[in-house]
From TrEMBL:
One of its GO terms (molecular function) is DNA binding. Pfam families: YjbR. Keywords: DNA-binding. The lineage of its organism: Bacteria, Bacillati, Actinomycetota, Actinomycetes, Kitasatosporales. The keyword Glycoprotein does not apply. This is DNA-binding protein. The keyword Cell inner membrane does not apply. It comes from the Bacteria.
């Protein structure tokens, strides 16, 4: 997956936005003010920090050793750093990004979740 494809994927979700609160190089993708992905789109290798269910996080780290690691500068229980541009199938990367978005949305107040379901 290329940086352009990763950005397009993250922005394809309902109410998703890209912000740069840390540095001009670090894209932070949010839904209603809550982060679901973080990536330096110019870095090589391209990696993304993604939220993950704690049990899945551990399983993925074991299954994709070196390509999925505990989240860099994040809560290591809930976040993984995923190597996006090689080694992992694009379909899996898409699934992990979508899961991250879904986990963040699930943690939103009910009224905000309901607003996301409407155009």
């Amino acid at each position: 997956m290329t940086p352009r494809e990763l950005r397009a994927l993250c922005l394809s979700f309902n109410a998703a936005v890209e912000e740069f609160p840390f540095t001009p190089r670090t894209s932070v993708f949010k839904v209603l003010g809550r982060m679901f992905a973080l990536a330096d789109l110019d870095a090589r290798p391209l990696t993304a920090n993604l939220k993950c269910d704690p049990e899945d996080a551990v399983r993925l780290r074991g299954e994709y050793e070196g390509l999925v690691i505990p989240g860099y500068h994040m809560n290591k229980r809930h976040w993984n750093t995923v190597t996006v541009d090689g080694g992992l199938p694009d379909g899996l990367v898409r699934e992990l990004v979508e899961d991250s978005y879904d986990l963040v949305v699930a943690g939103l107040p009910r009224a905000e979740r309901l607003r996301l379901d409407r155009p």
